[in-house]
Every structure is written in structure tokens, then in C-alpha cells.
UniProtKB/TrEMBL annotation:
InterPro entries: Amidohydro-rel, Metal-dep_hydrolase_composite, Metal_Hydrolase, Metallo-dep_Hydrolase, OTAase-like. This is Prolidase. It comes from Obesumbacterium proteus ATCC 12841. Its EC number is 3.-.-.-, 3.4.13.9, 3.5.-.-. GO terms for molecular function: hydrolase activity, acting on carbon-nitrogen (but not peptide) bonds; proline dipeptidase activity. It holds the Pfam family Amidohydro_1. The keyword Iron-sulfur does not apply. The lineage of its organism: Bacteria, Pseudomonadati, Pseudomonadota, Gammaproteobacteria, Enterobacterales.
């Protein structure tokens, strides 16, 4: 537990700069203590690992996960909570073994899961939770069937899903935002437009009034936090960033005007390509568990997802990285790197998955970078990730070591 470690003869990609530097890294107390060259004198209690030129980089960060989404269908009315939590722990263990040392849950994970992670009950990345995403009645996040009873209280948990809560009107959204923070949320997620997985809304629906979004942003700001918003269309994106939302999730239908608005407001885009790719690959499989309502709306947003990244780059919008995977599709987490490689360099993608995502989490200088005083959240690779992004592939396990908070949690180095 937090043993002093010396990583000798490392090739270092720091997450911030498009270059590789050689050096020795000393880890102590969960932090990077120093980065230097040719260390000769070391404490006898230090564990020395000679990397012999292997590559060290920051642990990966996935800024959009749903760890309680244990099935493809988000209508979870009849899901057993115990099963859902057990599956969550399984997903988290797989994520850290892939090299993701931090993840941001975009709706579903609760303080119980967060506590289990923080106390080391389960092997897991660092977890930044949103609690339940805020949704208006009939919006993305309201997974009830049309025949379901009307919500009768101001802030209902009866959405048909573990990932969201229904709240309508300024007093209700304020209360719901405060409630998420009360139970341990790091940030607030809102459903600001239609989605493909919700049964009753259209993709181009604008959800929540300006006053409601302003109130939610105000609550987050006073908690020294921020708001992330599910939004596909230009109209939804523009109004969100103009009202103070920090990150746009998905943003598939981004256009020039909305990209400019994002840049002007210093907002971040978090694309999630892998979920659409997984849906498209399996949409014709009757056993896939994909609801028919999802298939009908899928092509509307999937076809432009790659283009949105190009456009965001053109307008100098900062781009993070997320996956948004559900159920068994969690195994496709590495697909995000392969899909992004169609339109950007390996550095751009890895910069998104480390340094930029740390900024999104308000953890700049602590996560997403190999630097003195940063958390010792590191992964070690055989090959140079800046030359070949396919080091992140399920074809063979090239993540040889994972270090989280100064502890070695995975080690394939003999």
C-alpha cells in the first residue's frame, strides 16, 4: 500500500505534450515525487522496476460511462439492485485493467458504489459520479412506458431507469441538483435534448426551459462544480453553453454555429462514438436486446458523429473522450480509440483521454499528466502509443502495468 517505487529507464509521454522523454520516476505516498535521469542512490525500501525503455503515460480517463447500466435496454423497472451492483463492480474491474484509472459516471452510480471504490472494497478506477441525471417529464431519461402512471411528486425517482430522476420546474430542479450533491455527486448531469434510448422523445426536442437550466447551473456553481448536458442538435448545444453548461455530451449534430458558441463559452465536447458503433454492428440481431425505438433513431445521429469531431477541431473546441457503453457493450471501450483515429492523430486522442479529461474533472495538474506532485495514476506499455494507437486494442493486452494512487493494481511485467 503506497510503497515507494522507482520506475527506471522509462520512455515518458506526459499526456500534455506531443513528445516522448526518457527518465526515471519516483513514486511515493500515492504521488509522483520526482522525474529525473540516471538515479543511482535510492532508499533500501524502494521497489525498483527497470522498464528497459517501455512507455509510461498517464492513466486513461473515460469521461462518460454508465456503470449501473447492466443491460442494453435502459428501462430497468424490473432490474434486481443486487445484480446491477454486482455487474457494476465487474465493469469497473475490467475498466481499470484496460488502463482507465479514472471514469466519470454520467448517471446511475450512487454513493454506495463510490464508497466501495474509495475504501478499496472493489478494484476500480477513481469514480466521479453524477448521481442521477436530471430529466424533464417525457424527456431523455424518462424511460417509462406510455401507459405508466403520471408522476405525482415534484421530484420522482420513478423513471423506469437507475440513471435518471424526473424533475420539472425551477424549485424542483434546484432541489434535485442539491439532492445529487448531498449524496456525493461530483457534478450534475442534465438531459437537455432528445436521445436515442428514450422511448417518447424526438432527437430534436429541446428539453428544460432556460430558467430551469440557469437554476441547475447556479446550484452547481455554488457547489464549486459544473453541469454536463446530453445534447445532440445545434440548438440544444447553443442554448446549453450560453446558459453556462461546461460539457456537451455526444454533440453528434454539431455545426459551425454551435461549434463557435462552444469555443466562445470555453465549453468542452465529449464525443461518445463507440456506443453508436456497437449499436450499428448489432442492430439486426434479434437477440441483441436493443429496443426497436433505439434502432429507429440510431442512424439519425450515428452518421454525423465523426464529422462533429473534425468540426470541433476546426473551431478549437476542447475535446474530451467518453464511451457511453451499456451492458455487454462495455467490452468495446477500446473502440473509441480506433474510431477517433479515422479523423485525428494518436496524440489528439490520447491528449483528450488524459490531459483534457482531467481539466473536465477539475483535476488538472493532479490527473491526466505525468508530472511532479500529480497522482501516481500511470499505465505502462510495450510500444509507443504516439506512433500506434492500436496499442489500445483487445487483440492483445499491451497494457503491461497499471498503477493507481501509487499502488500497482495490474502487473504483466516479469
Amino acid at each position: 500500500m503506497n510503497m515507494k517505487i522507482l520506475l527506471k529507464n522509462a520512455n515518458i509521454f506526459d499526456g500534455k505534450n506531443n513528445e516522448i522523454k526518457s527518465g526515471d520516476i519516483i513514486i511515493d505516498g500515492g504521488f509522483i515525487q520526482s522525474i529525473t535521469k540516471n538515479i543511482e542512490t535510492i532508499d533500501k525500501n524502494t521497489q525498483v522496476i527497470d522498464l528497459q525503455g517501455k512507455y509510461v503515460m498517464p492513466g486513461l480517463i473515460d469521461a462518460h460511462v454508465h456503470i449501473t447500466a447492466s443491460r442494453i435496454d435502459l428501462n430497468q423497472d424490473y432490474e434486481y439492485p443486487g445484480y446491477m451492483y454486482a455487474r457494476s463492480f465487474h465493469f469497473l474491474k475490467d475498466m481499470i485493467n484496460r488502463g482507465f484509472t479514472s471514469v466519470r459516471d454520467a448517471g446511475g452510480a450512487d454513493v454506495g458504489i463510490k464508497t466501495a471504490v474509495e475504501e478499496g472494497v472493489v478494484l476500480s478506477p477513481r469514480l466521479f459520479i453524477s448521481g442521477r441525471a436530471l430529466s424533464q417529464t417525457g424527456g431523455h431519461g424518462d424511460y417509462r412506458h406510455n401507459s405508466s402512471e403520471m408522476v405525482t411528486c415534484a421530484c420522482s425517482l420513478c423513471t423506469g431507469s437507475s440513471i435518471s430522476v424526473i424533475c420539472d420546474g425551477v424549485p424542483a430542479v434546484r432541489q434535485a441538483a442539491r439532492e445529487q450533491f448531498r449524496i456525493g455527486a461530483s457534478q450534475i448531469k442534465i438531459m437537455a435534448g432528445g436521445g436515442i434510448s428514450s422511448p417518447t422523445d424526438k432527437i430534436d426536442n429541446l428539453q428544460y426551459s432556460d430558467d430551469e437550466i440557469i437554476a441547475i447551473v447556479d446550484e452547481a456553481t455554488r457547489f464549486h462544480s459544473y453541469v454536463m448536458a446530453h445534447a445532440y442538435t445545434p440548438q440544444a448545444i447553443i442554448r446549453c453553453v450560453n446558459l453556462g453548461v461546461k460539457t456537451i455530451e455526444h454533440g453528434n449534430l454539431l455545426d459551425a454555429e454551435s461549434a463557435q458558441a462552444m469555443f466562445n463559452n470555453k465549453a468542452y465536447l465529449v464525443p461518445t462514438l463507440s456506443i453508436y458503433n456497437a449499436f450499428m454492428m448489432n442492430k439486426d440481431d434479434s437477440d441483441s436486446g436493443i429496443p426497436e425505438s433505439v434502432v429507429e433513431k440510431l442512424e439519425e445521429v450515428q452518421s454525423q458523429a465523426i464529422k462533429s469531431i473534425n468540426l470541433a477541431r476546426k473551431y478549437n473546441v476542447k475535446i474530451g473522450l467518453g464511451t457511453d457503453l451499456l451492458g455487454e457493450y462495455h467490452n468495446f471501450q477500446y473502440d473509441e480509440f480506433k474510431l477517433r483515429s479515422q479523423v485525428e492523430s494518436a496524440f489528439d486522442t490520447l491528449h483528450s483521454a488524459t490531459y483534457v479529461n482531467a481539466e473536465i474533472l477539475n483535476m488538472q495538474g493532479k490527473l491526466g499528466i505525468v508530472d511532479v506532485h500529480a497522482f501516481a495514476d500511470l499505465i505502462i506499455l510495450e510500444n509507443n502509443p504516439l506512433e500506434d494507437i492500436s496499442v489500445f486494442s483487445d487483440k492483445r493486452d499491451q497494457v503491461l502495468m497499471v498503477i493507481k494512487n501509487g499502488d500497482i493494481v495490474k502487473n504483466l511485467i516479469s
